[in-house]
Amino acid sequence: MTNRLIKTLPNCCVVHQDDFFKKPDQIEVGDDGFRQWDVMTAMDMESMTNTMKAWMENPVKFARSHGVPLSSAPEESNPDEQTHILIPLLDVFDKSFYITIPYEECKRRRSTRQYTVPDPPGLFDGHVWPMYLKHRREMESSGLHIECLDGLRSKEEIYTQVYESIQNNLLNPGRLLSIPVQNL
Predict the structure, then answer these.
(1) 28: three-class secondary structure by DSSP
(2) How far apart are CA 36 and CA 34, in angstroms?
(3) Mean pLDDT across the stretch 106-125?
(4) What is the pLDDT of residue 15?
(5) 13-29 b/e with 16+ CB inside 10 Å = b?
(6) What domain range is 36 assigned to?
(7) Is the pLDDT confidence value at 105 over 90?
(8) Which top-level group of life is the source organism from (predicted)?
(9) Which of 18, 25, 31, 91 is the catalytic position?
(10) pTM of the model
(11) Per the structure, how many domains does the chain have?
(12) What CATH number is attached to the domain comprising 45?
């Protein structure tokens, strides 16, 4: 979906959460014997936050440094009149999407993925699925507006739903559009 959004939305730049994981030897091993990749401490949050702030403070410079061709340059403004937003990441996102999927389908899809380091036996049932459920409960009780997407729908249907939601948000200018998409 991300690749398609990049192609259809002008001046689109992507920051991949996966680029901010700490090195494997810095990831805690839990009581279940598995490295805890699904917890906040597995992420270099300072680096990710700084990257997002750099994007917000100067989107044009950020886009150029990430090889994004700009279709039209924004109007120049006085730097003294700009508001530099320095807020936690949750406050940065204009839209949040969460792809939901039932256990059996999730397990089937994960089993077909090719990982550099294959999942050890028991990882899905002992760690991945329980963490998915934990994070989903936390997300649902957070009070944040998060759009849930049905992971059983076709990729085309999910893309269309996200694209239309983004387009609707773009009709309401004034904020940098930042959209995290979470799934397994």
Answers:
(1) coil
(2) 6
(3) 89
(4) 81
(5) beeeeeebeeeeeebee
(6) 2-182
(7) yes
(8) Eukaryota
(9) 18
(10) 0.69
(11) 1
(12) 3.40.50.300
